[in-house]
Amino acid sequence: MRVLKFGGTSVGSAQRIKNVAELISKRGKNIIVLSAMSGTTNTLVEISDYLYKKNTDGAKETINNLEKHYKDTVDELFSDSNFKDDAVKEIKACFNYIRSFTKDIFTLFEEKEILSQGELMSTAMMNLYLQSKGIKSALLPALEFMRTDKNGEPDSQYIKQKINAQIEKHADADIYITQGYICRNAYGEVDNLQRGGSDYSASLIGAAINAEEIEIWTDIDGMHNNDPRYVPDTTPVHTLHFEEAAELAYFGAKILHPTCILPAKLNNIPVRLLNTMQPEAEGTLIYNSKAGKEIKAIAAKDNITAIKIKSGRMLLAYGFLRKVFEIFESYKTPIDMIATSEVGVSVSIDNEKNLDGILDDLKKFGTVTVDHDMVIICVVGDLEWKNCGFESKVLQALTDIPVRMISYGGSNYNISILVKREDKVRALNKLSDYLFKNKA
Ligand code: ADP
Ligand code: ASP
Ligand code: MG
Question: Atom 5 of ligand 2 has which residue's CA nearest to it?
Answer without folding.
Answer: 196
